[in-house]
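--- STAGE predict ---
source: upstream dedup step, 1 unique chain passed
mode: sequence only
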Amino acid sequence: MKKRLFRLGALCCVAAMTITTGAQALSVEEAYDILQRSYVDKLPRAAQDAKSLDELFSYTDDYTYYMTAEEYQAFLQGVEGDVSFAGIGAEITYVPEGIRIVSVLKGGGAEKAGLAAGDIIIAIESESCAPGGAEHRAKLLGEAGTSVTVTVRHADGTQADYTVTRALVTQTNTTVSVTGGVGYIDCDSFGTQTGTYFQEGVRGNDSAVHAWIVDLRGNGGGLTSAAVSALGAFSGEGDLIYFVDQDGESTAQSYSGKDLTDKPAIVLMDSGSASASEIFAGGVLGTGSGIVIGTRSYGKGVAQVLYDESNCPYLHGDAVKVTAYRFYCAGGNTTDRIGVVPTLYIPQDQAVAAARLLSGEKTKDSAYLRLVLNGCDFYIDIPAGKESSSAALEAILAALTPDAVLYWSENGGERKLTLAQAREKCGFAASSALDFSDVADSEYAQEIDSLAASR
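--- STAGE serialize ---
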């Protein structure tokens, strides 16, 4: 491997961003030097003769670009996903009458002042805020420690004025909640604290859950180290991602801790789930720690290095993001261009309901269907599932391949079923609308039906 003059920055996996190169201090020659040393592919001869940064970076992929100081700060904030501001401490929505309070933050100014979910702010500092809008929300923000007077209409129709003291509010990129014995991790990006959010959330709540749902829909990625730390909470120790550089040399990124749960993870993905999200989801599949449901992910299998003034002498507040590696998930699979193919292809309008159905418990009091997927057991309470979300149950059965391992339990006994038998037991037609009717005589019938289930 050629000697590097710069220290490696943070490994970053995010979807492409649209950035144009405006005024900059970095010269074309300096930028070429950075790319020649780090870019994963060999640059064409024409790159050496580039007359501008725009021309130079046109010879690279969409994930490699120069950022001015302002663009770099915006990029970092987007990766972190954590936002802090001073406000009244309430989740709000706009309504014709003003601003409705959806919920109040524990310990925030709104809670301390006596406001509650369902209250409608109809005036701010004696000025009407009907209909509610962003300009009215701005009046609720301000410096921590300052106060604002709001006129509130309660659900019973009474009105009163309240003086609310603003305080610092932090919205994190990851939230962890538990409902009905199911843990739900909603992660919008993989920032520097995301691994800690996962670790603390799983450790603190695992005794209260029998399954974990990890929602990565719309998560465009972030730091690979955060994805590895988050994945480690479910997989335990081992090599969880592999990087291959421009010289073909491979490096593994490992997790050395123990897993924090023995419950399977159900990962929700869509076409907006990219990069570090794909590292996590592909790792869950590769380590047998759970399944992925939803639709195919974005398909980015390269990782970038960030160069700034901390690790490159050419940069002074500005930055360069360079695709320096191809990455491979635990298990050796690439996500580049193809994405993570879900275990179960579930339309997005049924994905959350399907995840909750798969998060059922083994019970003696009700009929259930046990699915063995990627080496993990999932239990669906059939009576409850048909009553609460028949469409999601049918979507799960339609997404299963013909060789799916299924067991039916009723009155304390359990027996193995074919997919067609399972569909009938659940009250649906034995064949799915996705099944082909003209392949019975083909030696590839099962393969064809499997592809149909995966769309």
